[in-house]
Design brief:
2 copies of one chain form a homodimer. Chain A is built from 12 helices and 20 strands. By secondary structure, the first copy, chain A, is an alpha/beta fold. Chain A has an 8-stranded mixed sheet with strand order 3-6-2-1-9-11-12-10, with helices on both faces. Chain A has a 4-stranded antiparallel sheet with strand order 13-18-20-19, with helices on both faces. The first copy, chain A, has a 4-stranded antiparallel sheet with strand order 15-16-14-17, covered by helices on one side. The model of chain A has no long low-confidence stretch (mean pLDDT 90).
Chain lengths: 404, 404
């Protein structure tokens, strides 16, 4: 009998009616002969409400206590889902991250999973019970409650699937799978049936919201087959797995975009060894995640360094940079929030030349100016003006023939 | 340095403002040189909201999952209080019942504390931290979350005080202490400065709402000095402790009343050995708590058995009794919901005769009919018509000179 891990997000458990729908879906998998483990996020917007309560108390809540508070959200949803499943006549048992032994480091609010103790889950599965595990949360060796940060429940699900050697990890979401481009922008965008871990990683990293890069990475490292599918329909979604012979070999899998980044440029930096290291070390120390980095060729011993960060981190990043400007002997810094990153992702790129050229000309034909370019073996990203983003997505989707 | 355990109820942490007030009070005890352990109930009416969520899912939620759900209430309040204390510049750390190791039996929704592991609390106190513990909840040996039932947070506080050998267990509430009678009924009722465990137990058992009998029993068994006081004022409240020489030796400590009971009478029961045992065994098996029991002297080999139960249990109790009526060869049963129990409590009763006579005549002088009578060495209870309850409380308070 195989093990199926299912993960349901907050919008799937937003109220009693939706929880009952999820229960039916879970029970269906069980009645088909599977051992079923379910990972659930916090009920609807409960996390936001909890954060609001915390900030009414203090503007800087200690992170350990924030995790203690936030972890109640998933604890509620697992208990409620267990009740709904038992009401359908099936045995269910819910667990917090602490109870199930999802061991993490002590980096509160963004902890990383170190190990999972699977014995209690396996013993309950053996009894025929449906096991429900709180997503997003774990526990340190000292039994302090941690949370895993954004997309944490996806990571919980994939990590559990890896540990339990599950046949499949089903991620239920409000879209039908991974698309060749955002269906809200490109009308004839197509659902991708199968995609490799590497491509999915690049798509997630460049703006596809359906799954966090972190959980895909976990899946790749442990060979977990991930099925992203809709909680509203029975149709198959997108399978994320090791690239193999039968997998469709498109040159380009999809077009992604991201408007949540901002750009900072440090102007007139002396072109000496160690400068870049210093800049990005200081940003890392301030917990700022940097995405793209471009350093132009130097001109008269001075250069400009540009990089992108998440908009939420812009103020922090700018203040780190401004403190360094005189120390570095730079001329100053500028920021730009009205940027978008647009990317082409595809494993076929490796063996096809001319993709970059085609991409740049498609943008040029639409009068879209390119600010920064960054490439990997299966991805090309361009930073453009935010106002051009929809036009650019449609142009690239059309250019590479990704539609139905 | 002594250890102080403070307990705050749900109304003390109903919103951010109130939580900040509690934080100041906690910090004051700490700054006076004490090691401080705080027990907190769930925020305001959050328990009711959680129950509502559960009953939207199913009419009979499994008790294990109900405990899982309800335990989130206190987890929220301990985290929020820790944040408020840290915002005042003091180190605080919060714990759930599971984390602190409040070991209970597996009787979900009404578990009993078996033991408390105090090592983590003591090590945090040693670091100078204020330790905040979720009330009302514990954990089984299998790490399943339990709740302690009504008044559970008081019990948590007193049990912790016992385990930690605390100097005092302060129970903060919305009244100033224990009164000679309900101040809403008797205008000149007086706050009692000191009272013995036994008297407090009888007062709690006969209707004084300020503290659950269960926590007083715990206090008595382990010699924990309990201070019931107002969270709104600095004035001392009521000390509950071992009776000693300096304790005021009133004949009567107070008048209590309870309108939450109902009476069932089984009519025409054959007067044979074993009948009463059978009746009350069946009621116990149905989880009905019986308070007063009266069996009148038999008349022509038949007798009537009357007993009182909580109103909430009346329907269940009546159906248990009705099933037995023919088996017992009884004539039938009647129920009465419009009753009140009124009680006099006082350790001095032991050595003073005539208290019962005085009580009955005070009631008679006010034309109040007595339905049932039950006595212990330090208590006399009478069941009367519900409509007479306020009149009776005032008459007895006056008769025994309990006012200011």
């Amino acid at each position: 009998m195989g093990i199926v891990v299912q993960k349901y997000g907050g919008s799937s458990v937003v109220n009693a009616e939706r929880i009952k729908v999820v229960a039916k879906r879970v029970v269906k998998a069980k009645s088909e002969g599977n051992s079923v483990v379910v990972v659930v996020s916090a009920v609807g917007d409960s996390t936001d409400n909890l954060l609001k309560m915390a900030y009414e108390i203090t503007s800087s809540p200690p992170k350990r206590e924030l995790d203690m508070l936030l972890a109640t959200g998933e604890q509620m949803s697992v208990a409620l889902l267990a009740m709904a499943i038992e009401a359908l006549g099936y045995d269910a048992i819910s667990f917090t991250g602490l109870q199930v032994g999802i061991l993490t480091d002590a980096a509160h609010t963004k902890a990383k999973i170190i190990d999972i103790k699977s014995d209690r889950i396996l013993s309950e599965l053996k009894k025929g019970k449906i096991v429900i595990v709180a997503g997003f949360q774990g526990v340190t060796v000292d039994s302090d409650i941690t949370t895993l940060g954004r997309g944490g429940s996806d990571t919980t699900a994939v990590a559990l699937a890896a540990k339990l050697k599950a046949d499949i990890c089903e991620i239920y979401t409000d879209v039908e799978g991974v698309f060749t481009a955002d269906p809200r922008i490109v009308e004839n965008s197509r659902k991708i049936d199968e995609i490799s871990y590497d491509e999915m990683l690049e798509m997630a990293a460049t703006g596809a919201k359906v799954l966090q890069a972190r959980s895909v990475e976990f899946g790749r490292n442990y060979g977990v087959c991930i099925h992203v599918r809709s909680s509203f329909s029975e149709k198959p979604g997108t399978l994320i797995k090791e690239a193999d012979a039968i997998m469709e070999k498109a040159i380009i899998s999809g077009v992604t975009h991201d408007i949540n980044e901002a750009k900072i440029t440090i102007l007139g930096v002396p072109d000496r060894p160690g400068i870049a290291a210093k800049v990005f070390r200081n940003l890392a120390d301030a917990n700022v995640n940097v995405d793209l980095i471009i350093q132009n060729v130097s001109e008269k011993d001075y250069t400009d360094i540009s990089f992108t960060v998440e908009k939420d981190d812009l103020t922090k990043a700018k203040s780190v940079v401004d403190k360094m400007v005189s120390e570095l002997g730079a001329r100053g810094s500028v920021r730009d929030e009205r940027i978008a990153k647009i990317s082409l992702v595809g494993a076929g790129m490796r063996t096809h030349s001319g993709v970059a050229a085609d991409m740049f000309s498609a943008l040029a034909e639409n009068n879209i100016n390119i600010g920064m370019i960054s490439t990997s073996s299966i991805k090309i990203s361009c930073v453009i003006d935010e106002k051009d983003v929809n036009l650019a997505v449609r142009a690239l989707h059309e250019k590479f023939g990704l539609g139905k």
